[in-house]
Design a protein that fits this description.
The structure is a homodimer of 473-residue chains.
Chain A (H helix, E strand, L loop, with lengths): L14 H20 L3 E2 L5 E3 H4 L4 H7 L2 E3 L10 H5 E5 L4 H10 L8 E10 L11 E10 L4 H18 L5 E6 H10 L7 H8 L2 H15 L4 H12 L1 H4 L14 H15 L8 H19 L9 E3 L13 E6 L8 E5 L14 E6 L1 H11 L13 E3 L7 H13 L4 E3 L6 H11 L3 E4 L2 H6 L1 E6 L5 E5 L13
Parallel strand pairs in A: 1-5, 7-8, 12-13, 12-14
Antiparallel strand pairs in A: 2-4, 3-4, 5-6, 6-11, 7-9, 9-10, 10-11, 14-15, 15-16
Helix pairs in contact in A: 1-6, 6-13, 7-13, 8-9, 9-10, 12-13
């Protein structure tokens, strides 16, 4: 007998899984469309040369490459002789390719969402798969903070509609981190690694980050300086909880107070200090995002967090991350990356995007029981029984009438004992059984059984579409 | 500059394409769900051993295989050293794997639909792609003709809801073809090839099929016999048009008359003739399908066609194919295949399925202009203008209010001249622009411009959600 499991690190989604996934995806889609984002889909397979060099050395190793076909396979020519295509590794490089390829067809400002799987030959682990969905939204062509503000609003609305009430959208600016590294005398060449270490602050704490920075050869004084800046208790304390600065309990006010306080802390440097200049610009941008969202319901979820770093090196401005208390990682994140989308062309194209972690959202919603109860049962509302071969056509006709009334209807697929038909109805989880038995067929009636209450009611065939099938506790 | 086209034979779907595809897919999904079919999704990538040998030699060559990763790559060990995974080639083998793997979790009768891409390294041509969607529906576990009848009804409903009125669902039975080959003394070993030739009748005509059968070494007399049976003008003439038999103009009646006539034609053989026995069973099954659908609206689309063969060798009973006058190929097809789903286990599992040709449906709908007009314009209904940086937050707030009223709203992403903002609105195809200019901001009003008529109307901010945005000619 053959192995029947899915390939390593990949998953089959049985109907109950697909229903949950589609529930979340549909809400994401609806909200993004209500914000004017347009759907884009790209092939699972890209030319290898499109992807090569875009994801660093690790990415290159984790890419699923496709064997050349037939005569083009050449064992003597190294990797180029073996492979010419690869599976999509993310949705950002395909977006950059699309933006370059359809310049003249796409609007000047291109807002797109894309919800498709990507593949990475990572070592499978709990919550880490080799095929997983990315849900990306990106706005191409504008450097205005309206873009950031709108994406934060959209993401907050998605989370609200999914039922999340306790999330935080942390925001920071990559240039503010640069500014802090500048004034902390962190060598330019070391900054990506320092950012990488800071990014782990949530997981390994100040002590862990210090150890890692020492390992990178950063002098202890500089480490203290930057860690003091980013982990300043004044910023990290919950609004209203801070004893020294008494930041407001209102998030919007507190965010502005923190930005003020932060600007203050750069006053000690001379005006021409590059770090001070960078910090000034970054703080202005953050202030603008906070101000633009000040009239929107998302404002209460936003928290300026100067320790937020985000691992990826391509961010150039604002960065975001969504967190909930019961998950170590994030539910999603993003930011401005003005240098990336133009990779296939000659000019720099401003861009800002947000990526939602579908798989993690599903895990948290499952653990918290956040899915609506109707997703738990079968796709169908009613099962219609089949009495015998001669009257089976009547069962199909009844099913058609019930569908006309907007119901999802399963017909038992063959004549059988009613006991078996009821057992099947219970197994698949329909809420009603419409019985067309000998007496019902003779009297032109249907007996409706409510599977939850056991209640039965016989009604005339002509009145069947008025029966309140939807009314269930 | 890098190449920015998608990989050979693959397609990017820009927003207008995705909207059309999703429109069709959503209708397919809704109808299948209303028939109680449940969604299934399987990984794009399968273990090579799962797929090997399932699609014949040609299939093996057209499969996209994935290069082994890192140390497991072995240039000296033939194909097994080079590849261990492959891209999904169809949705049927993954279904068989799923049925075997989740036996205890799946209901006794498993009705699933699956709409996912598959990949074949075919030579790209007009309408032939290397990545394309399959839309499959299959019912596993019952040999009853209720299954066939319901699938025909569901498919007819999908086509109706998409706007097709002129399609035919041709039906036949694989065992009726076997019976005809039996009484025409076609050698058992030759039958798959004979079926393959007959399957081309639509395209190459009687003469072409005769030539092909002669080429296979079938004696001329036998060819005449079988071709007389399957191309009998009595069966092929449109109902009501036939001069000799005067079949009814009513499809349902004509189908039954044709089955009667066909049974008659087997009377000349002795009762123990295996062909006559097979024909008797097949005719009974076809009669049952026609009778079961006799109360349903799909009955007028069904046409018994003894020349329908369907290429694939795995069919064991009823076969179907959907045709429209303006397409040479079919819009979909399927049938009963009781031997296939059990391939990963020990027992035979009855199964019947239907596959819709999404790409062809899209082509015909495009050519006929069958998509609803609203799909042609932008995803958004309204563009909100942005006057300046200070009042941009007001634009975001107005957008939020309009979204609350159910509209899809685009905010111009930065302060700019109104001329440019209107130009952009026209380019992306929104139907309304909500102008928040200097005077509107001062008066707490909004000016709504209907982009189709040019009409403008200034309304108070408080009454904005009552404005009839949806009313467009």
């Amino acid at each position: 007998m053959s192995k029947t499991q899915p390939a390593r690190g990949m998953r089959d989604f049985l109907p109950a899984d697909v229903r949950k996934r589609n529930y979340v995806i549909n809400i994401i889609r609806e909200v993004y469309e209500s914000y004017g984002f347009e759907p884009l889909e790209t092939p699972a397979v890209e030319n290898l040369e499109t992807l090569t060099g875009k994801y660093g050395e690790e990415g290159g190793q984790l890419m699923f490459k496709i064997l050349r076909r037939g005569e083009s396979l050449d064992l003597t020519a190294g990797e180029r002789g073996l492979t010419d295509l690869a599976l999509r590794y993310d949705l950002t490089v395909p977006l950059a390719r699309v933006v370059a390829n359809y310049r003249n067809e796409l609007p000047r400002f291109f807002k797109r969402y894309q919800i498709q799987p990507v593949w990475r030959a990572d070592r499978p682990a709990r919550g880490r798969f080799r095929e997983f969905y990315q849900c990306d939204v990106d706005a191409i062509g504008s450097g205005s903070m309206l873009v950031e503000a709108e994406q934060i609003a959209a993401v907050a609305e998605i989370l609200n509609r999914l039922g999340f009430k306790d999330f935080t959208i942390r925001i920071n600016d990559r240039e503010l981190l640069d500014a802090m590294m500048e004034v902390s005398s962190i060598d330019k060449a070391m900054r990506p690694q320092v950012l990488g270490a800071i990014d782990k602050l949530d997981k390994i704490g100040v002590e862990g980050v210090t150890k890692e920075l020492l390992g990178l050869g950063i002098p202890e004084g500089n480490i203290e300086h930057i860690l003091f800046k980013i982990t300043n208790k004044d910023f990290l304390a919950d609004p209203g909880q801070n004893e020294i600065h008494k930041f407001s309990a209102d998030r919007f006010t507190a965010n502005n107070q923190m930005l003020d306080f932060f600007r203050e802390s750069f006053k000690v440097y001379p005006d021409e200090n590059p770090g001070k200049i960078l910090a000034g610009k970054a703080i202005e941008r953050l202030r603008e995002i906070i101000s633009l969202t000040g009239n929107l319901s998302c404002k209460d979820y936003i928290k300026f967090d100067p320790s937020l770093a985000r691992g990826l090196s391509y961010y150039t401005g604002a960065i975001f991350e969504i967190n909930v208390p019961d998950l170590a990682g994030s539910l999603g994140g993003g930011g401005r990356y003005d240098g990336l989308i133009g990779m296939f062309g000659k000019e720099q194209i401003p861009a800002c995007g947000f990526s939602l972690g579908l798989e993690r959202i599903l895990v948290v919603m499952d653990e918290r029981g956040m899915f609506p109860p109707e997703l738990r049962s079968s796709s169908a509302d009613v099962l219609v029984t089949v009495w015998n071969a001669e009257t089976a056509g009547e069962s199909l006709r009844l099913a058609g009438e019930l569908r006309q009334a907007g119901l999802r209807v399963l017909v038992y697929p063959e004549p059988d004992k009613f006991g078996k038909q009821f057992k099947y109805a219970a197994a698949v989880g329909v809420r009603f059984v419409a019985v067309l038995g000998e007496s019902e067929l003779a009297d032109n009636t249907v007996t409706i059984k409510n599977m939850a209450t056991g209640e039965q009611q016989t009604v005339g065939r002509s009145r069947i579409s008025d029966f309140g099938f939807r009314i269930v506790d």
